[in-house]
């Protein structure tokens, strides 16, 4: 959306704006002239816990009230890393906490000016293909309890399964919705970050179960990303410069996806 193509300030709802990629994205959106209504467990206009069905419902209702039913943009950054226990909570926030906001706020986006939405997925979304994703049936049926039970029953692997499975499901949800949303004039895309210096990455890297794999997860560029390097791509996708981009997942990963899967894209 363009901040110059309308009389009023474009309004964007964001989840996960308190820290990391979300905080950097909020800063970039506000610097570009957007009004941001944040949803988070702290430091936000709307305080809501997206790990529960009640919290997600409360977040949607409060966001609709705050924007008066008219929304120009939606950016969903809230997420939990592999280290969180129980692992079921990772699925609840990363998948259901995003998809239920997408669906709940779509009617308001349809009323907006050049509306667009971006979800923050992950390069991990490609590590567990949909056809092999044990959480796919739970996602298709909207069954949070079923998804939680699967990952909580996976023992030490639960964190990895919950993270890769939820991000794979989220990208698929974005792709499927973009077909429907595009017909209504609302663009929907995802950003797939690689390793980015945030509290989430630091906490996962300090967990002995994941420390080695995170240390080895270095892209060809040889460094981790700064959150501002994610924010600038989100800003592009939310702008009229991306007016023909819909249903796309953009890897912002220093080339690690190309390194790991050169023949798959
Ligand atoms: N940092 C990375 O290396 C990396 C890589 C790929 C994808 N991602 C994704 O980027 C997104 C942002 O993560 P980040 O790295 O900036 O981490 P972060 O921990 O700094 O930010 C996560 C945000 O989500 C919020 N949040 C967590 N649980 C919540 C809940 N139950 N309800 C509402 N809000 C909640 C947090 O308060 C925080 O503001 C996540 O979706 C994450 O999966 C991060």
Q: Write down the CATH topology.
A: Rossmann fold
Can you tell me the CATH class? Alpha Beta
Bound small-molecule species:
nicotinamide-adenine-dinucleotide
What's the story with the biggest beta sheet? Answer: 7 strands, parallel
Explain this structure to me?
By secondary structure, the chain is an alpha/beta fold. It has one domain (about 10-250): Rossmann fold (3-Layer(aba) Sandwich), CATH 3.40.50.720. It contains 10 helices and 7 strands. The relative contact order is 0.15. The model is unreliable at about 1-5 (pLDDT under 50). Bound molecules: nicotinamide-adenine-dinucleotide. The site of nicotinamide-adenine-dinucleotide has 26 residues, from helix 1 and helix 7.
Give the structure's gist in a few sentences.
The chain is an alpha/beta fold.
Secondary-structure map with pairings?
Layout: E1 11-15, H1 20-31, E2 35-40, E3 46-47, H2 53-67, E4 73-76, H3 88-110, E5 116-120, H4 136-140, H5 144-152, H6 158-183, E6 187-193, H7 199-205, H8 211-216, H9 227-238, E7 249-252, H10 256-260
Parallel strand pairs: 1-2, 1-4, 2-3, 4-5, 5-6, 6-7
Helix pairs in contact: 1-9, 2-3, 3-5, 3-6, 5-6
The structure holds nicotinamide-adenine-dinucleotide.
């Amino acid at each position: 959306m363009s901040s110059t193509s309308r009389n009023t300030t474009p309004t964007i709802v964001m989840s996960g704006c308190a820290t990391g990629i979300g905080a950097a994205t909020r800063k970039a959106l506000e610097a570009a002239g957007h009004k941001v209504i944040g949803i988070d467990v702290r430091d936000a206009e709307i305080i809501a816990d997206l790990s529960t069905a009640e919290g997600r419902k409360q977040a949607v209702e409060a966001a609709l009230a705050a924007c008066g039913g008219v929304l120009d943009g939606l950016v969903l950054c809230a997420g939990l890393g592999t280290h969180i226990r129980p692992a079921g909570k990772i699925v609840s926030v990363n998948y259901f906490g995003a998809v239920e906001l997408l669906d709940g706020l779509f009617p308001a986006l349809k009323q907006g000016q050049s509306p667009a939405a971006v979800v923050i997925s992950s390069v991990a979304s490609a590590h567990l293909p949909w056809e092999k994703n044990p959480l796919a049936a739970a996602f298709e049926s909207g069954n949070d309890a079923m998804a939680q039970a699967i990952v909580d029953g996976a023992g030490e692997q639960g964190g990895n399964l919950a993270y890769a499975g939820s991000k794979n499901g989220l990208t698929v949800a974005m792709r499927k919705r973009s077909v429907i949303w595009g017909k209504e004039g609302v663009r929907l895309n995802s950003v797939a970050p690689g390793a980015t210096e945030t509290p989430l990455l630091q906490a996962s890297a300090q967990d002995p179960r994941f420390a080695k794999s995170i240390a080895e997860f270095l892209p060809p560029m040889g460094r981790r990303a700064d959150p501002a390097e994610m924010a600038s791509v989100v800003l592009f996708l939310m702008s009229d410069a991306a007016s023909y981009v819909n249903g796309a997942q953009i890897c912002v990963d220093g080339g690690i996806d190309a390194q790991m899967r050169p023949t798959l894209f």
